[in-house]
Structures are given as structure tokens and as C-alpha cells.
Amino acid sequence: MRRLDQLLASLGYCSRREAMAFVKEGRVKLGGVVVKRSDQRVDSALITVDDQPLEAPEGLLAMLHKPVGYACTHSQDEGPNIYELLPAHWPDRNPAVTSVGRLDKDTSGLLLVTDIGSLVHRFTSPKAEVEKVYLAELDRELDPHLVDIFAKGDLMLRGEDKPCLPAKLEIVSSKTARLTITEGRYHQVRRMFASQGWHVEELHRERFGPYELGDLTEGEWRMIPVEQASR
User: Fold this and answer.
1) pLDDT in tens, the chain (231 residues)
2) Which of 9, 67, 99, 180 would bridge with 168, disulfide CB 3.0–4.6 Å?
3) Angle (CA) 97 99 105, round 5°
4) Bridge partners, 3 (sequence order)
5) DSSP labels for 113-141?
6) Residue 104 is a catalytic residue
């Protein structure tokens, strides 16, 4: 049970002061009955705002099909960012919605966003070894020997003192490869190919852990049941 004004503020609907106006205007109901006080302690499952249930009161998780050109940041200094593609009130939630890991501006594909800190840790902890699957377009014809090179687990990246974990490379066509990795190093896929003399011209993430883009179109997002992610 939480105070109504604190609850609405934490979910990004309004400030605690503005919650008083919501109540006075009759916009908030508890079990179908108009609430009279903004400091009343309430069960979030029974609250509606404008006759709609509260959005993810226990925390949210969503997948976004990130287009090329969008940065994974709340800052406005880097041009368009992913939060412009999501509901405007999500950054006002407390905790604010954040991306699970990052995709650089030139990479498209599946990105998870959440306001649940334990899920961020679960999906990004090196110990978790969560699989990420990328489709890469290269600048020249691929050499089949790359499959073994990436799989060995001894590939060193410039400036690092530990080799990459074994990765699965599938050559889809002469210049297209699908790479599955279980780490999240800085620009890892691009650097892995670069270490062997290939330049990644296009990069797209198809899967993150158990989640796949499926029919989610570029720029769109979809909620994932939090209980599903907690299994």
C-alpha cells in the first residue's frame, strides 16, 4: 500500500503536487469509486486514471526495434535518442526507464528497456553469459576459417588483456554472417571482425537472450510480461 500521490509520481503520470489536481478533477478511481484524497494509501492494482489501469505499477520491461541513427542515451546532445520512440512519460518514472546494455548509433535491432534494476543486472552481468545474436554485412567475402577463429575462445581484441569467449559464427552468404556472442564488450562484434581484417558495414541485433524481434517493425516497441522475465 502506497500513498496515491507518491504512486502516480513514481509511475510518471504527474508530480505529487499535480496528483492533487488529478484527484480534484475526479480522474482517479479506487475500485471504480472516485478517490477524494491524494495522500490516501491505496492498492495499485485497484487504481485507474481516466478509467485506465495503471501502467506496469510493479515495473516494466519492453523490447524496442531500434533504428539506425538513434543513441541509447537520455542526453539530447547526441541527436535523436531511443526515448523519443517510447512513451513520453517513461523517463519520468522513478526509477527511470533505461536500456539494458547499448546498441551504437549505427546498429539496429532488438533493445530491451526497463525500470527494474535487478533485470538490468541479470541481463548484463558477465556471469550470466546471455546470448546476443547479430546479423552482420561485411565489406568483402567471408573466409570460412573465421568460424573456427571465433569459436576457439582465444581471440584478442586491441587494448584488452582477456580473450573473447567462444562465439558461434554462421556464414549466411558471401558477405553476410550471423554471430552469436555471450559478452557485451564495447563495439565487440565490429572489433572481432576488424581484428581479422573485415569491416562491418551494417549490423543488426536479432535476438537478446530469449527475446527475438519477430514481426516488430523498426521504431516500434512491445511490452514483455515482467513475470515472464523473472522465470
Assistant:
1) 999 999 999 999 999 999 999 999 999 999 999 999 999 999 999 999 999 999 999 999 999 999 999 999 998 888 999 999 999 999 899 999 999 989 999 999 999 999 999 999 999 999 999 999 999 999 999 999 999 999 999 999 999 999 999 999 999 999 999 999 999 999 999 999 999 999 999 999 999 999 999 999 999 999 999 876 755
2) 180
3) 130
4) 41
5) EES-HHHHHHHH-GGG---EEEEEEESSP
6) yes
Q: Look at phi and psi of residue 46 and say left if phi exceeds 0, alpha if psi is from -120 to 50, else beta.
A: alpha
Burial class (CB in 10 A: 0-12, 13-18, 19+), 74: middle
CA distance linking residue 154 with residue 196, whole number of Å? 13
Distances (CA, A) of 14 to 5, 30, 92, 203: 9, 17, 9, 38
Distances (CA, A) of 80 to 85, 179, 205, 222: 9, 27, 19, 20
pTM for the model: 0.91
> Can you read off the three cell numbers belonging to residue 193?
571482425
- How many residues appear in the chain? 231
Largest CA distance in the chain: 71
Q: Report cis status (omega within 30 of 0) of the bond before 57.
A: no
